[in-house]
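Consider this pair:
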Amino acid sequence: MAENELIYDGKEKKVYSTSDPDVVRIYYNDIATAYGGIKQAALKDKGICNNRISSIVFRTLTEHGISNHFIRRISDREQLCRRIEIIPLQIIVRNRLAGTTARMLGVENGTRISNVVFELRYNCDELMDPMINEHHAVALGLLTYEELKSVMDVAAKTNEVLKELFHSASIELVDFKMEVGRASDGCLIVSDEISPDNCRLWDEKTGEVLDKDRFRHDMSDVCASYREVMERLIKVSEQ
């Protein structure tokens, strides 16, 4: 594959080849989407914020021994990452019950819980990312049972690391979506991005929403909230 060839043209990110077949360049743009792409808009500097936030998050995971695709950030909107084979599986980790799960269970949004809830979703736009269980995942050939156990262990560890990271910035990690991919050596590693686009992040003192829900629910200051998360993480990560 030639250098700078477009590999993936997504709504919110583009992925390009590099001179190294095992390395890709990811470009973050300013498009925000919701409800399976039905709602879309350009949000100024969203890509800059998500690139920086995700870079800090993945660097923190690396420091805690959690394998992931991130190599380094190379510009305001770009980062180099390990090339992976995409596994169409989302692991949702919930420290509170919010969003679709709260509605499904008929409880108040943000309900506190005594345990951590893990959900699996089949990453398929045409089917609206349906919730599945581990047996469905194996039946679909996504992962083996052994691999699933390993991935869930990584999700649990990632949750603990990220809760502490965001807490240091006075932000509560309500929930997040984690994806994994298979690297060239066959290992499953955390991939995609971890940012306000796929996390619920609430200010610990005020409960203010600092994530994509502001866009979903037509709240004001979406860009300002993303920048607030970025600036807080920069401050604590550079200490």
